[in-house]
Write a structure and sequence with these properties.
The chain is an alpha+beta fold and 191 residues long. The protein has one domain. About 16% of the residues have low confidence. A hairpin with a 4-residue loop joins β8 and β9. The strands form two sheets. The protein has an eight-stranded antiparallel sheet with strand order 1-2-3-4-10-9-8-7, covered by helices on one side. Strands 5-6 form a two-stranded antiparallel sheet.
């Protein structure tokens, strides 16, 4: 059996999920500058350069060619830079999957993750980063965890924490929404 079949099955399930529940419309806001080690990443490997653009756009075509991406249905797979793009029916890049650790033939994404996320973040640390003070004008009162707006486990392998307010979905390496030690499998950034 073809070794890429499980990858395509997962990507097909992801595409079905995204189609069924609609693409999130809030654009992700990057709040962190690239760290010195991340500055070495070529401009071509910056997902923001293609997000929301047509496959026919010259920047997108150059990105795909320079990063040796390959088409797979509604996806462009850029395995050597740790990214995949989901295209809508109009061939516009609606979502970008960033793989901060090597997985399913993808090398680890070396660029800056959105919203200050780090490759080694756990569910607990992400909820802490996305949180807010319990009382707006009294930070000493404590911290509310940044719980997702929605959560699912559509493939029964990964838990999807959907943060509509930020335009990102954090997909964890565990199907459980209570696994505080689960780490990031991929980050899905939406346009």
């Amino acid at each position: 059996m073809n070794k890429s079949f499980p990858l395509f099955s997962i990507l097909a399930a992801i595409a079905l999920f995204v189609t069924a529940y609609g693409a999130l419309v809030v654009q992700a806001q990057s709040s962190v500058q690239a760290q010195p080690a991340e500055k070495a990443v070529s401009k071509a490997a910056n997902y923001e350069a293609v997000l929301g653009k047509s496959l026919n756009d010259q920047d997108v075509a150059d990105f795909i060619a320079s990063n040796h991406c390959s088409g797979a249905g509604a996806f462009q797979l850029c395995k050597n830079i740790g990214m995949a793009f989901w295209l809508d029916a109009n061939q516009t890049v609606k979502s970008v999957y960033l793989y901060p650790a090597s997985a399913n033939g993808f090398t680890a994404y070396k660029g800056a993750l959105p919203l200050g996320l780090a490759a080694n973040d756990t569910m607990a640390s992400i909820e802490q980063k996305f949180g807010q003070p319990k009382v707006d004008h009294a930070p000493q009162a404590g911290w509310e965890p940044g719980l997702p707006d929605e959560g699912r486990s559509p493939d029964y392998i990964h838990y999807w924490a959907i943060y509509k307010r930020f335009g990102v979905t954090v997909i964890y390496n565990s199907p459980s929404p209570t696994d505080r030690n689960a780490t990031i499998y991929t980050v899905l950034v939406n346009k």
